[in-house]
Amino acid sequence: MEKHETELITFKVQRYDPEKDNEPHFREFTVPSSRGMTVLDGLIYIKENLDGSLAFRTSCRMAICGSCGMLINNYPHLACHTQIEEFRSNTLTIKPLPNLPIIKDLVVDLIPFFDTHKAIKPYILRHDAEEMENPTTEFAQSPQALETLLQFTYCVKCGICISACPTSASDKLFVGPQALAQCYRYCADTRDEGEQERFPIVDTDHGVWHCHLAGACSEACPKGLDPALAIQLLKRRVVSRAIRLGRKQQPSSKVPPPTQTKPKVPFPEFTVKGAK
Amino acid sequence: MRNTYLWFVQLVTGVLIAVLLSIHMVLMHLDAILGFFGINVNDPTSWHSMIQRSNQAIWASLYIALLVVVLYHALNGLRNIILELTPSVRTERIVTWAIIVFGIIVFVWSSYVPIALLYA
After folding, report:
1. What CATH code is assigned to A7-108?
2. How far apart are the C-alpha atoms of A233 and A121, rounded to whole Å?
3. What is the per-residue DSSP string for A111-144?
4. Given A204, A210, A239, which is nearest B8 (Cβ)?
5. Which of A233, B58, B59, B82 has the smallest set of CB atoms within 10 Å of its CB?
6. Which residues of B touch A (CB under 8 A)?
């Protein structure tokens, strides 16, 4: 069996406790690193063995939840998706994501980020509210139609694109690549009719027109999405609607629902008695 | 909607600059090559030929058109850059009006001579 060597890696972690510190400072930890170990593993090692007060966000450890976005050696990464070996260095500098307010240590405040995401109405909108609530038919969507937006559905809302974006760094009101890409994702959906509701939110001085196409969001995205492309496609869509040129999106056809469906699974009982 | 048109016109003026500026650059700097093809432009950078061009409606209008599209393209770009650093509606309005006034002044200042020469 191959023997894995353990190497000692210095983690320079930015610490900041708003109750005690006036400004962020760095603390160094020495972490034994073996092959295949991720930066998140290193941080968990620090929290378990060296300093329990270190705060960072994590959940799934497999690049699905988007919790552990942080600045590793001055580039935004998901800590769980980045191996220590990748950096070929004995020192790792770990900071919280820039362009977002710090809550503590490596934890940043994502509430403004989620608020912007919510503001662009990231769900299918239809003119017919009654049909939307109680559907009588289903939508048929071709694989080709799905392909136009599929990559943008993989967004895990980690905030890495926002922290990589030079426009978000200078313009605090900028909607940001994440929300703009999601706006495109829903507008491009053949089932959706919500363009008129979403466009006023992104068609502003601090909206889609402020993207300078630096492409940093696409470069940094840990899920391999191309938000910069989505923003350009969104610009094209907004302009073609304004000047009434370009192809109209074909609405998806409706198909009758399957004749036999399984009954819905009943809502589970609350395990905590008295909870509602 | 206003921003959509501002951006769309930015695109259109970009294309127009590519065309009009190419005409200008070819005329000004490639006169030797134009001469090879039998087009004699008679030392285009001299004062005399400049005045002569300004007297012709086609050249004067081409140059005024180039001035308009360059002014729009440059000042709208400048406005975008400044607005990125001014996160308030009031400053945005001040910036927008300052840029419109600046653009008008530069336009009148630079188009006065060719227009005056045209009617001279």
Report:
1. 3.10.20.30
2. 18
3. HHHHHHHHHT--S---S-HHHHHS-SSEEE--HH
4. A239
5. B58
6. 1, 3-8, 11, 80, 83-85, 87, 92
Could you tell me which residues come within 8 angstroms of residue A176 by beta carbon, excluding any fewer than 6 positions away?
A113, A116, A161, A162, A165, A168
- Domain coverage including residue B85: 2-119
**Cα(B40)–Cα(B50) distance, integer angstroms:** 14
Q: Which CATH number is associated with domain A111-255?
A: 1.10.1060.10
Per residue of chain B (120 residues), give pLDDT as tens.
788 999 999 999 999 999 999 988 988 888 888 878 877 777 778 888 888 888 888 888 898 999 999 999 999 999 988 888 877 778 888 999 999 999 999 999 998 887 887 776
End-to-end CA distance of chain A: 54
Amino acid at A158: C
Q: Provide, as residue numbers in chain A, all residues whose Cβ is less than 8 Å from the Cβ of B83.
A: 171, 205-206, 210
Is A57 part of the contact surface with chain B (CB cutoff 8 Å)? no
CATH classification at residue B94: 1.20.1300
* Contact across the interface for A242 and B4, Cβ inside 8 Å: yes
DSSP secondary structure letter of residue A52: T
pLDDT tens digits, one per residue of A171-194: 888 999 999 999 999 999 998 988
Mutate to test the interface with B, among A209, A234, A241 (most CBs of B within 10 A): A209
Contacts of A213 in chain B (CB under 8 A): none
Number of domains in chain B: 1
Length of chain A: 276
Q: Where are the domains of chain A?
A: 7-108, 111-255
* Region label for A63, one of left (φ > 0), alpha (ψ between -120 and 50) or beta (otherwise): left
